[in-house]
Design a protein that fits this description.
The protein is α/β, with parallel strands linked by helices. It has one domain: Response regulator (Rossmann fold). α2 packs parallel to α3. It is globular and about 35 Å long.
C-alpha cells in the first residue's frame, strides 16, 4: 500500500491543488512537499521513510527538476520512481525525462476533476507496484 508521496514544485497553488486532490483520492497517503530541488534533496536525505513516488516539476529555482532527477538517478535513491510533473507538453521534455530515468512525464491537468482522476490512476497502479503500466494508463485517460 502506497504510504508517501513527495511533491517537488515551486508553485504553491499547484502544490495545494495536488495535496487536496490526493487527500480526496486516498486520505491515508502522506504528501511531503518541497519548493525546489535543493529542498527536495534535503528532505530525501533527512527523512527516514522514503517516498513511494516522487512528483517533480521541471522549472524551479536553485536546483531544477532535470538537475535533481540526474542526481537522484546517480545516487542510492535511484530506485524511487520519479514522475516528471510539469505544465510543459513539449515532446523534447518527454524524451529528456525518459533519457534521464524518470518513470514517465505527465503534463499537469488543467481541471481539478482531471487531477483527481490522474491521481486515482497513479495510486491504483502504485499500490499494485505496476509502474510499467502506470504512465500508459494515465496517458490513456480522456483529456476533456
Amino acid at each position: 500500500m502506497v504510504k508517501r508521496f513527495l511533491l517537488i514544485d515551486d508553485d504553491s497553488d499547484d502544490r495545494e491543488l495536488f495535496s487536496e486532490a490526493l487527500s480526496m483520492v486516498e486520505p491515508a497517503i502522506i504528501c511531503d512537499q518541497a519548493t525546489d530541488g535543493e529542498e527536495g534533496l534535503a528532505l530525501l536525505q533527512q527523512n527516514k521513510e522514503e517516498p513511494d513516488l516522487i512528483f517533480l516539476d521541471i522549472n524551479m529555482p536553485i536546483l531544477n527538476g532535470w538537475q535533481l532527477l540526474s542526481r537522484l538517478k546517480a545516487s542510492a535513491l535511484k530506485h524511487i520512481p520519479v514522475i516528471m510533473y510539469s505544465t510543459s507538453s513539449n515532446a523534447k521534455d518527454k524524451r529528456t525525462a525518459q533519457e534521464l530515468g524518470a518513470l514517465c512525464f505527465i503534463t499537469k491537468p488543467h481541471a481539478f476533476r482531471m487531477l483527481k482522476g490522474m491521481l486515482n490512476v497513479v495510486v491504483e497502479h502504485a499500490n499494485r507496484k505496476d509502474y510499467g503500466k502506470l504512465c500508459e494508463a494515465v496517458h490513456a485517460m480522456p483529456q476533456a
